[in-house]
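Appendix B. Chain record.
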Amino acid sequence: MQPPASPVRLVDIVFPGDTNHHGTLFGGVALAHMDKVAFLAASRHGRASFVTASSQKIDFAQPARHGDIVEVTGRVVRVGTSSLDVEVELVAEAPVSGERRLCTRGRFTLVAVKGGGVRLPLPPVPAYDEEPADVLRMVDIVFPTQTSHYGTLYGGDALKMMGKAAFIASTRHARGVMVMAASDRIDFTSPIREGEMVELSAQVRMAGRSSVRIGVDLAAEDLLTGARRHAATALFTMVSVDGDGRATPFPGR
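Structure tokens predicted for this chain:
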């Protein structure tokens, strides 16, 4: 029997460049997020090179608005000999109120590319465990545009990912307008290579009336072998601010 697996979860923020003239997330950007999560979920489960073969009908029930947090979650729900289906949900979350709404759901079929040590048939459908609510976990993949001439992730791009994780974790804790006040310490322990999956874990380490310290760990994972290694650790101080940009106590505290 396989040990319980964790859903693959991408968490992002809707920025102006991702929106249409209505101030809502472009459907194409939403689909790109969903396809990426489907690929990562399939690769982590099957430990093979996968390509997207098709997607079933996808209905957009609610818009994701400028400034929303979007959480895209993928779970393997069907497995064949060399193909599998991943069900993906995209949920939008209002940063301050915490209101969550299901925007869209879809099912993607991916096929394992034979060769290169791929083991068939693929493993059976996994059982999933839910993750602890006090830890934010989010994944992404390293593309060529994010790498240096050594083929490894730029330090600045790693910091961008870690800073985003700190912002989302602090916003969910405080339910206020949060800004970064300090990057207290950053240690890089291993390079992250092109094509690897990165998983970030962010958690509140210390909380005051108007500020929190968020610890962020960054791990790299080889999608074919499953080998994981710690790549970086950072500690950020995030502060709640009012409309004039001055520190203010967290709402309701």
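Further analysis of this model is presented in Appendix C.
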